[in-house]
Write a structure and sequence with these properties.
It is built from eight helices and ten strands. The protein is an alpha/beta fold. The protein binds adenosine-5'-diphosphate.
């Protein structure tokens, strides 16, 4: 008992340290006159950014425009600045120079709540909370109805997960043997992003934790969604094979843009071999 109790104390301590870290951050400065973005075009204008305590910039004089309703793949070697570029869109960090705009509005002038409503993310290593799948998917949009959550789960190919869980959407994840694999959690995270119905969807290695077929199906679905509802989808990927599937291909290296190509006839994801 003493052993278990001390383990719990250590876990609680670690959790408190992490919470402290989050709570000690200064909230983002809110604009005095928030600007409403018009559409979901994403534009980087001469962006330079250096991480705190880093000696070299992670991005240097980066400029590009992704038209509304396009899919863009950010590719290139590790450390090239792809994830950093994606993380500046929802203001995980603010630029040191230049600007990042959505729908013509500088992200710093949109207001954090409105910006969060506009942008959704799917990361490679998303973990679900120890809550029901319904609450997990609804986390990004608390007022979503059960039907909207179900339809997002269906769109994110979660039907087989729902079928195997004892209480379907109401099953609490991580209890009584209801553990989900990394790929299953990833699909839950994609359902969460879709339930939010964002204008801009950011995906950092979205298929990394998925098997080949599911990865392909999910990517096809994200691209399809982008086309049907004029959303802008930004995909950060190491997988060069995905490059021909996007409308816009941006190659990044050492914090700079190596090339920017528009692809008039992207290859449908389902026809791709990798
Ligand atoms: P990519 O996504 O292309 O692999 P990143 O955007 O992750 O590249 O990294 C770009 C550069 O920024 C690298 O030199 C990396 O080491 C650095 N970097 C990334 N994240 C951080 C961070 N949180 N703090 C300091 N440096 C970072």
């Amino acid at each position: 008992r003493i052993m278990y109790a001390s383990e719990s104390v250590m876990e609680a301590n670690e959790a408190m340290t992490k919470l402290d870290e989050v709570l000690s951050h200064t909230p983002l400065a809110e604009p005095a006159q928030p600007v409403q973005p018009s559409g979901s075009q994403v534009e980087f204008c001469d962006v330079t950014f250096t991480y705190p305590n880093a000696t070299r910039p992670a991005l240097e004089h980066v400029s590009f425009t992704v038209p509304q309703g396009s899919t863009v793949a950010l590719v290139g070697p590790s450390g090239g600045g792809k994830s950093t570029a994606a993380s500046l869109i929802p203001r995980f960090w603010d630029v040191d120079a230049g600007s990042v705009c959505i729908g013509g509005a500088d992200v710093r002038s949109i207001g954090s709540a409105a910006l969060m409503d506009q942008v959704a993310f799917v990361f490679q290593d998303t973990r679900l909370f120890k809550q029901s799948l319904l609450e997990n998917i609804r986390a990004a949009r608390p007022n979503a109805t059960r039907e909207q959550v179900l339809s997002a789960a269906h769109a994110a190919q979660c039907d087989d997960i729902l079928a195997k869980l004892p209480d379907g959407l109401d099953t609490v994840i991580g209890t009584q043997g209801t553990y989900l694999s990394g790929g299953e959690q990833q699909r839950g995270a994609i359902a969460r992003a879709l339930a939010k119905n964002p204008d801009v969807l950011l995906c950092d290695e979205p298929t990394g934790a998925l098997d080949y077929q599911t990865g392909k199906a999910i990517l096809a679905l994200l691209y399809d969604l982008c086309k049907k509802s004029r959303k802008t989808v930004v995909v950060v990927t190491h997988n060069g094979a995905l490059a021909p599937t996007a409308d816009v291909l941006i190659r990044m290296k050492s914090g700079k843009i190596e090339s920017f190509e528009e692809n008039p006839s992207p290859v449908p994801v389902q026809e791709l071999e990798w």
